[in-house]
Fold PIG-L family deacetylase.
Amino acid sequence: MAPVPENWQRGVVIVAHPDDIEYGCAAAVARWTAQGKDVRYVLATSGEAGIEGMAPAECGPLREEEQRCSAACVGVSEVEFLGLPDGRLEYGVELRRALAGAIRRHRPEVVVTLNHHPIAGGGHLNSADHRAAGQAALDAIADAANEWIFPDLPEPRWTGVRTALVNVMSGWTHAVDVRDTVDVAVASLAEHKEYLSALSEVPVAEQAAAQVERATGPKGEFDRAVGFELYSF
Ligand SMILES: [Zn+2]
């Protein structure tokens, strides 16, 4: 199993919802920030449609705050919410424009995103938002680099992205060794207290530990690892 290259300094993780990063990927983020890398989060939505019985106007700010706490756990202080509608992300030019703008603002060498494939793992259908956000994040890398695509964006083009990493639960080609960061990843997911409490009566700490355990199983020679597909630019 090839290790994910770590010869870079700035990365941006682009996802649809608060909590998406914390189901495994945050263990890799914690490793990278411990190495001194600058990692930032960009969330297309505030997850405002994510809690049954809680109106979006109340839910969105709560979930943003939970996401900021989760990010802080793994050494990420810069978290940007793009304010797009939770549950109704559409793959297309508008989403690519929003994500290209984010890439131009943050100027990363590495873009990390989540599984955009139709199957989420375990035979589950991947959500429409995840499919749209993941695919658009990958496509927005080239959009961000071309001055003639989205010339109306205020940010100058950014041609510095060399690698995209897609966090997947199966079919990975590369892995990040997370044996030292599993605990902090569990703490990071457990910051989504209200969200996880609404999902299940199992205590939040137990839910978080089980989810991170599932996402950080052995891969190749690594006892605990997070799996990625790697794309070069
Ligand atoms: Zn999600």
User: Anything to note?
Assistant: The domain at 2-9+23-232 is CATH 3.40.50.10320 (Rossmann fold). Residues 27 and 53 are 31 Å apart (CA to CA). The pocket of zinc ion is lined by residues 16-17, 20, 127, 130 (CB under 6 Å). Strands lie at 2-3, 10-15, 38-43, 79-81, 110-114, 119-121, 124-125, 163-167, 174-177, 225-232.
